UniProtKB/TrEMBL annotation:
Pathway: Bacterial outer membrane biogenesis; LPS lipid A biosynthesis. Its EC number is 2.4.1.182. NCBIfam families: lpxB. Pfam families: LpxB (PF02684). It comes from Pseudothauera nasutitermitis. GO terms for biological process: lipid A biosynthetic process. GO terms for cellular component: membrane. Condensation of UDP-2,3-diacylglucosamine and 2,3-diacylglucosamine-1-phosphate to form lipid A disaccharide, a precursor of lipid A, a phosphorylated glycolipid that anchors the lipopolysaccharide to the outer membrane of the cell. This is Lipid-A-disaccharide synthase. Belongs to the LpxB family.
């Protein structure tokens, strides 16, 4: 009988990550079968999606409360099927609010429960690690500082690196990106990334546009790129351009192409999140900014354990790029911080060297390393140790 593995992945990022993991496991177990909740990329690898991963795309507490009954029902149905079929293992990919409960039930029923992508217990809600210890048989971590946290709590853990580090080149080609985007080779180019969610764009669009106006007065030949992921966020940013009477500003909105925009840029202004890690892997100097509701900011600040919110600073364990958040996220401060990078080539080169070291640390051939950590739970020993790609 081929081994059957239950999986749950949430949203597009989890779908992509899980599809790579399925492919890596199949290199060792070609007949393995996978079922559960997943998306089109997982299905392209032969995954049997009982429900689509888009169902788990919950945005904020209000949306989560509205959909609690629906999601709870799906989770219970899937658990009943897992208990009935008793697969060789369950793998939860991200989506911790959905998966940790399920993993705890699966583990209690005597089946291995593996969680891929550690929740951000190092940033806030550290008390969650007790629940995680009860729920999972093994944690797969993307960042090198995470395993020690789980080891102290007695959770079996493996560091598998970050998949973006496997995909992104160690030496990005800025000239090729500028040619592809039809940008001048010698003009200052700034990428503005106000976030992927509508709420983020609403909070940051006006500020980012005003910042671009200030920089344009200092650098009249500068070009500003604004990659936006959805039709809704493009519309919000276009409305902000009209509101700020910025029709003459040399801003180009792009539909997607965030990586191309950052590769082509001299400097990046980015909302805190995964995009800041992408900018670091592309060796780009950046300024990290974010603004949310004041009460929410005060709450999260009280619960935070680290002095930074940006992944580049967290991973380097020091302030290597400026973070201008909340009341400091104002156009004059942002413009000055961005201008400081533009005017200091030596600082840009030193930062690129630091980010190259970080890239090597995170480049671990994540999917294969994760598969090798999972194989013993499937009764298979990996044939030989994997080596990070270079």
């Amino acid at each position: 009988m081929p081994p059957r593995i239950a999986m749950v992945a949430g949203e597009a990022s989890g779908d992509l990550l899980a599809s790579h993991l399925i492919r890596a496991i199949r290199r060792h177990l070609p007949d393995a079968e996978f079922f559960g909740i997943g998306g089109p990329k997982m299905q392209a690898e032969g995954f049997d999606a009982l429900w689509p991963c888009e169902l788990l795309a919950v945005h904020g507490y209000v949306d989560a409360l509205k959909r609690y009954r629906e999601l709870s029902g799906i989770r219970k149905q899937l658990l009943a099927r897992i208990k009935r079929e008793r697969p060789a293992a369950f793998i939860g990919v991200d989506a911790p609010d959905f998966n940790l409960w399920l993993e705890g039930k699966v583990k209690a029923a005597g089946m291995p429960a593996i969680h891929f992508v550690s929740p951000s217990i190092w940033a806030w809600r550290g008390g969650r690690i007790r629940k995680i210890a009860r729920s999972v048989s093994h944690m797969l971590c993307m960042f090198p500082f995470e395993p020690a946290l789980y080891e102290r709590a007695g959770v079996p853990v493996s560091y598998v690196g970050h998949p973006l580090a496997d995909v992104f080149p160690l030496a990005p080609n800025r000239a090729a990106a500028r040619e592809m985007l039809e940008l001048p080779s010698d003009a200052p180019v700034l990428a503005l990334l106000p976030g992927s969610r509508q709420s983020e764009v609403r909070n940051l669009a006006d500020t980012f546009i005003s910042t671009a106006k200030l920089l344009h007065t200092r650098h009249p030949d500068a070009v500003f790129l604004v990659p936006l992921a959805t039709r809704e966020t493009r519309l919000l940013f276009a409305e902000a351009l009209c509101r700020n009477q910025a029709g003459e500003l040399p801003i180009r909105m792009l539909f997607g192409h965030a990586v191309d925009a950052m590769t082509a840029a001299d400097v990046v202004l980015v909302a805190s999140g995964t995009a800041s890690l992408e900018a670091a892997l592309l060796k780009r100097p950046m300024v990290i900014s974010y603004r949310i509701g004041n009460w929410q900011y005060r709450l999260m600040k009280r619960m935070a354990y680290l002095p930074w919110v940006g992944l580049p600073n967290i991973l380097c364990n020091e302030t290597v790029v400026p973070e201008l958040l909340q009341d400091d996220a104002v156009p004059d401060k942002l413009a000055d911080a961005l201008d400081a990078w533009l005017l200091d080539p030596a600082a840009r080169r030193a930062l690129a060297e630091r980010f190259t070291e970080l890239h090597h640390t995170l480049r671990q051939d994540t999917a294969d390393k994760a598969a090798r950590a999972i194989l013993p739970y499937l009764g298979v020993e990996p044939s030989c140790p994997a080596h990070p790609s270079t």
